[in-house]
Amino acid sequence: MGKSNHLTWHQSTITKTDRHQKNGHKSCVLWFTGLSGSGKSTLANAVDQALFKEGFRSYVLDGDNIRHGLNKDLSFGVSDRKENIRRIGEVAKLFVDSGQIVSSAFISPFLEDRAQVRNMFENGEFIEIFLNCPIQICEDRDPKGLYRKARIGEIPEFTGISSPYEIPDNPEIIIETGRMSIEESVKEILNYLKERKIL
Fold it and tell me: Is residue 172 over pLDDT 90?
């Protein structure tokens, strides 16, 4: 069946600004991007824990977790990867509209896809965090054994090996996860949020 032409957007009675005032902070998406093994999920959860501890409303959207449910019908081919990121952008937008700080931990390797998601948000709501970690370190870590499988051909179209990763042109934050500790990385991100008066 095709897309319906009989849809009307229903405006929420409670606005995003109302939710900001109630929560005592603004909302945004922290878009963690980087190679597999660069520390996206680890850092996203550490930031979420720090925010939660300070009483801020936050949530983590993790790549593997989303593919267990919402996006379980998608493959890792180019078109499905694009659709995966598009859907995540829409979900993240709902979280931001609900007044929360959402951390999105996805490789999201393509510039075009990340730009498309950025355009879904108001100015200042999309915060791209590039986890800059040399592939050798990522491969040495290889927490899920994916690089090893990719090297022997078990995983086709693997980012960094047989599929490209396009480095962000101008991310809001760059975290050098090959040399920075989790604590240092969390502090840098929280400082950014405070400087931008999100917190």
Answer: yes
Active-site amino acid positions:
108
Using DSSP's 3-state secondary structure scheme, residue 199 falls into coil
Cβ-based neighbour number of residue 144 at 10 Å: 11
The arithmetic mean of pLDDT across residues 143-151, rounded, is 87
Three-state DSSP string of 101-148: EEEEECCCCCHHHHHHHHCCCCCCCEEEEEECCCHHHHHHHCCCCHHH
**In this structure, which amino acid lies at residue 174?**
I
**Residue for token pair 């606005």:** 15
Considering only CA atoms, which of 116, 128, 121 is closest in space to residue 169?
A: 128
Report residue 12 as tokens. 């929420």
In sequence order, the β-bridge partners of residue 175 are 131
